Each structure stands twice: as C-alpha cells, then as structure tokens.
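Predict structure. Chain length: 808.
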Amino acid sequence: MSKTGSFLLSLAATLLLIFAMAVSYGPLPHPGPFFNPFSGFWANAETAPEFGELQINPGEVLEPVDVYYDERRVPHIFAQNDRDLYFAQGYVTAKDRLFQMELQTRAAGGHLAEWLGEGLVEYDRGQRRLGMVYGAEKAVEMMLANDTIRPVIDSFTEGVNTYINTLQYKNYPLEYKILNVAPSEWKPVKTALLLKYMTQMLAGRSDDVQTSNAMARLGEEFVDEYLSKRPELQVPVIPAETEWSFDPLETEAPDSLYHPSFTQEIQHYQPDRQNGSNNWVVDGTKTAGGYPVLSNDMHLAMNAPSIWYEIQLKTPDSNVYGVALMGAPAVIVGFNEYSAWGSTNTAADVMDWYEIEFQDENRTYYRYDGKWVPVTAREEIIHIKGSESLRDTVLYTHHGPVSVSGSATPTNSTLQRDHALRWIAHDASNELLAFYLLNRAKNVDDFKETFRYFQAPAQNMNYADTEGNIAMQTAGKLPLKWEYQGRTVGDGSDPLYDWQGFIPYEQNPASLNPEQGYLAAANQFPADPGYPYYLGESFAPYERSRRINDRLKEMENITVDDFRELQNDSYSYHAKNLLPVLLRAMENKELTDRELEVLENLGQWDYVNSGDEIEPSIFYYWWRGFYSEIWDDEYENSYPMQRPPRDRTLDMIMLEPGAPWFDNIHTEENETLEDLAESSFKNLFEIMESRFGEMGDLWKWGYVNNTHLNHLAQIPGLGIQNLFTDGGIESVNAIRGNTGPSWRMIVELDAGEVRGYGVYPGGQSGNPGSKTYDEFVETWRAGDLFSLLFLREKPDNTEKFPLRLRIE
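Prediction complete.
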C-alpha cells in the first residue's frame, strides 16, 4: 500500500478514536463537511507534491519576489527590499505551518479554551495569571514604536494574512477541520506572544518555593552545601582564566534572610530542567581548513511539526540562511556570507516570587516599604467554546501578577500565602531588532552590538566569522542581585528584595579569541566563581560541558565530520565517574548468577549510551533507585522541596562516602553507601521487568529511552513514535523521550565560501498528509546532516527547484 493510502487508513482510525474522546477535544466537526471527499479531510492528503510555477498577485509587494523551493522544500526568497522580503516570509511560513503558528500563540496567551472548550480553561487562566498577555502587549508596543522593526513585523503580518485570505474550508490545514475551527487573523501581538513563549520555555523556571521549603525543613547549611555549592567537575562557559576588567556595581542586601512560610507549589508550566543544548566554536588553528568552524545543537521539546522552519532570506543588502520560529520574521540561528551564530540557554535566574501581605480581604492595598500601596487590577476575558466567557481578575503589584491564596490555580492547589511574580518576560522588549541586525552582521563588532537589544531568554551565543574571529557572548538582561537573592521566596514588602537594576551589558560574561582556540557552552555556569555577579543556581550538570571541552582540547585538524560525530557523542561522564563506585560497593555481596553476570557486563561497558545495548538501561535504573534511596526519606513531606542535583550528589558519593545522608531513617540499622547501592541494584530488576518484560531486547536503551515526536496538539495518530536512538540526558547527544536536538548545525567560515550543514527532526510541511511532514526524521535519527543550499544569486538552472513561487 502507498504511503498516502496508509496515512488515510491511519487517519480514519484516528478520527474514530477522537470522536470517542469528545470530552478531551471539545465540540467536533459536523461529519458531513469533514468526510466530504472533495473538501473534507481527504483533501489534505498530498498524492503528489506541488511542482512547477505558482503565481499570486496580492497587490501588497513593491517589486516582484521570487521563491525557489529546493528538493527538500526549503524556500529561498529573493526580494528587492526588506518590506517584500518579510511579506514573503510571512506568506510561505503560513503556507506550510499556519496551524502550528496559531496553536503556539494561543497556548502562549491562554486562548486554547476558545478552540478546545472548558477542559483548557484552567490552563488559559494560568497563562493569564503568569502575565503572558500583559508582557506581550508591552513588547509589541515597543516593537511597533521602533522605525526599523515596525515595517518588518507589519509586512510579515500582511504576508500571513494574505495567505489566510486565500483559504476555503477545502484547503484548511487538517487540524482546523478536526477541531472544527477556522484560522483567525494574524496580528503583531501574536508574534510578541510567540517570543514571550520562548522566554517561558527557556527562562520560565523558578525553584524559589521548593528551595524555601527545603531550607525550612533541612536548614540553610544544607541548602548552601547541597543545593548551591558549585560541583567539583564543573567547567564554566567563559574560560576560567578570563580577567574581569571592570568595576562591578554594588548591591545592598538585607541584614538577615527572610524565611517564608511552607508553601504548596505555585503551579505553572516550567521548562524541563533535564533538557540541554550545546554550542561550540573553534578557530582556524584547530581546523583542517585553517578557518573557524562553528557548531550549534539546540535541544528543546521535539514535536511534529518541528519548532523550526528552514529558510533563506535574500535581498541586495543581506543574505541569510538558517531556521526561523513559526510566527516571527527573520532567521533566529544560522549564517550569512560573513558570519555564523548559534544559541544555548543561559539558565540565569530571572523569575522570582515574593510573599505579599494585603491590607484586608478586599486585596486593594499591599504592604511595601512601610506603606500600604494600591494594587492594580487587570481583567482577563477567557472565551470558551460552547460556553459563556469567563472573566478573571488578576491583581498586579509593582513586582508583577499575584497568585492569590485560596483561589483556584491550574491544578486547584491552595497556596498558604499570596505570591507576586517578578519575571523578565513582563518587561517591554524588542528581540526582533536583535535578530534583524544579527542576520546582517558582518564582523564581531556587529555581533556584539546586536545583543544590546536582546533581553530574554538569556542565551550563550557563539560566533565565528570569515575574518577568523570566534566569540561567546552571554546575551540578555540579567538582574542585578546580592548573593543568593531569589534563591528563596522574597519579602514582598522590603525594597531590598527588589531587583536592584541590571548588570551592564558590557559586564555580561563574554570571550573573544581565547588563547585555547575554542569556546563551548552546554547550559553550565556562564563564568567561574571569580565573576562578581550572582546569576542563580539552576545551571546544567557538568557532564556535557566537560565532555565537549575535553574533546575540543585534544582535537586537531578538525573537519565537519568531526563536529558531526561530537554532536552525536553519547558518552556518559556520569556513568564513568559513578559506576566504578557502585561496582566497588557490590564486592563481596551475596548475588545470584544473573546479578553477577549483569555486574560483569557493566564492568566492561564503555559508558556510551548506545541504543543497541542493555547496560545504559540498567545503569539508568540503578542510578534512579540509588538517588531515591539517598534522598527520599529526607523529602517525605507534603510540600514541594528542592533536591540536590545529580552532579552535586555525585560529589557527595565520591568525596563524602560517610555522609549522614546515606542513612535511611526508616530502617533500624545504620545504612551505608554500600547498603543503598546493593538494595537499589536488586530492586531495579523488578522495576524493569514490570515495565519492559523479562530481560532481553526490550531492555535495550533505544527502547527504554523512548524517543518520540508527539503531534503539537497531542492529536493521536499524527505524531511520530518509537524512534530508536542513542544518547541520554548526560550525553552531548542529550536525547530523552521527546526532548533532544531540535536543530543541529555546523558552519565552515571559509572566506571563499561559507558552507552550512544541518538537520532537524521533522520536515518543512506541517501537513500530516504530506511526504515532507517527516522526511528529515530518519536523517536526524541516524545522526547525519544535510548540505545546506546557500544561494548567492538567483539560480540559472532550476532543476534543483521543483517548485517556484512568484509574488507580484
């Protein structure tokens, strides 16, 4: 059976399932139009991809625009001016990914109940109470006030709406038909919401409540030693020998630390703390070609369709290739004819909670600096499909929006106290200006100047150019804090707990052309302990950064293939350091023949998380059980409490084998590290057998790691399941479940011809009925890269461009 036929049968079965799940998906389409063979869901199956030339006459462009779609359906847009360029980008992006664009911005702004009904009301309420719409409104106001970005975002918006206006029910994207909704007009605020959504995904994490509770239960000394202390094996992003040649701004701390009450968790979406990205760059002294080579390996939640869209944007004044976000103009990560850049998350603490004291039950005034200060009330209207709209009043202090005690939160938890949120996403910002300038950067000065305009989410940006320069820049507005400020919930009435400004951009961590010849970031601490500002503590464990630095230090005559192999490196530094300790702990224990065989195999394992091997799975479950046996007894509490990270726990195991935390309080006898290692080893077999059956092929890491790409709207049957992969959360190739490398890119900065290579897990089309929906997935799974077709001029020979679009 053909792929299209299989898809239709699968889709038909999926639809029956969806109809059986009406409560989850809200009101469903009328079966007549939906099953109409000419205009219903059948019309979304592409029996053959588009070929030839298409022409549209929207009357919106100043001069004709030519779009050449290559064999992988990547659009190469040639325009004569910026206005037409971004109009065309909006049009072609909507043509391929309209549903994704709209769904993401609805999720960002809390507008899902309007499509999906009452089941999404609490999610929408949570997003509004986080201040997502509030922040987007402030951002779009700043963007539209900027003479450079206003025409860019207006043109992009016009392009999207021009495509929307061509649609009839027959050619609606499939998901609109399934959900029985219609596309809505695109507005600039939706682009702002998308950018704020990226801030939420990458800088929406806060451990304040959990750390406060841990401190209340286990003491400040425990928090200092096991939650805040920098792990021994950590390597900073900026080389440790870097001198900070500036006078840091001073901060004023309170005389004593505020101790908040125990608090139930403030429920909101938080980024996956196990997710990780990598970028690195080397100069010409370490490469076979004598020029810099840059790698970017952004790890995010992986969905179908992908978060990224590959594109080239060309005018007489600029020429850039890379990936764009669905709903924003410009290229976010990529390269031009002079330079290349990549991005990893910084993970600095830019989200702080404060306990608030209201004057009375009317909640119209709150205490601040010895006075009662008026609260601002903002009404949020949540439209609900099939029901009346909900009006929700959100209170704002000078910190930000308040989560009110006793009111419903997204999980119907009740807070002990009222909490206000100070978050960088609430501030007006214009990240589009940074990306617009970055797309045109010709040298390292342009690169550094670009990020004066970038606010959030803070990123470690790597850079290389054809002049031979390499650099790493921490980009973003970083709050000016005293040490440990924001580690725990703050006193909302004390001005000393407010952010005391921002670190000057010139004093953000940065490095240019270091003597070692390379720079690397993997979400670890941006700078060594000598850096004079406090940035927070939620940085990645040491394993990926140390592995990358170790490899780059020893590598010479580097080629693209060397970097491709490093992107796919599945070595586990965690296993290398921990497993020998666990194996020694098992010596002289009473073991079965099977247990002895497993230990022998683990002793011969090379610490590589290979999908074809069982050892990574066994080690993973042994570590999980061992970690739980160390800490679970200390954390039996109805309140959420922050736990020591993986690498700090490893420090304790290796350097403090007699630490009291190995003693399980639920046993009469004093337990030791060896006792916990033995019990967790014996328990892992029962756990794995219950999940994967008897020990055999299904214990292989490729199955246990469970890589999948769920459909963005979680519609059954439209995702991509059961991808057999290598890697793991502590490997450079940090694939785990549906998180992993969302865009792998390598760029050679050859002055004669800049060359790029890349891949993402998905395909250009957002239509599940198209062969281009998932055509990159196998290349990505196998760890290969495509050679990126970076055009300098319009092609004379169009054989490599099966589809061409002319906009006049």
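Summary: The first strand starts at residue 52 and ends at 56.
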